[in-house]
Amino acid sequence: MSPCHVTLRELQDSMMKTYGDRDLKRGPERTLLWMCSEVGEVVDAYIKGDLDSLGAELGDLLAWMLSFCNLLKINLEEVFMNRYGSGCPKCSKPVCECAYI
Ligand SMILES: [Zn+2]
Q: Model-level pTM?
């Protein structure tokens, strides 16, 4: 798998290959907890201004998110594109024109 031009679907399949068995043993509840703890690590890296760690932690967060999606048989690429593929899901514009709150 080339690091360039990889689709989210390919990333999710890659996570299935790498961690699918472990994810199944852990189950969705505990995988979700790990995913949430990873959010804390992202926040921690951001607060510390550690940009190298921040990128790595965001990668970990995506990996846990894809594991969680694999367990629930959610195709994140499909769901994401259905929601955001044509722009903002609220105003339906390619560049959001919703009132800024
Ligand atoms: Zn909008």
A: 0.90
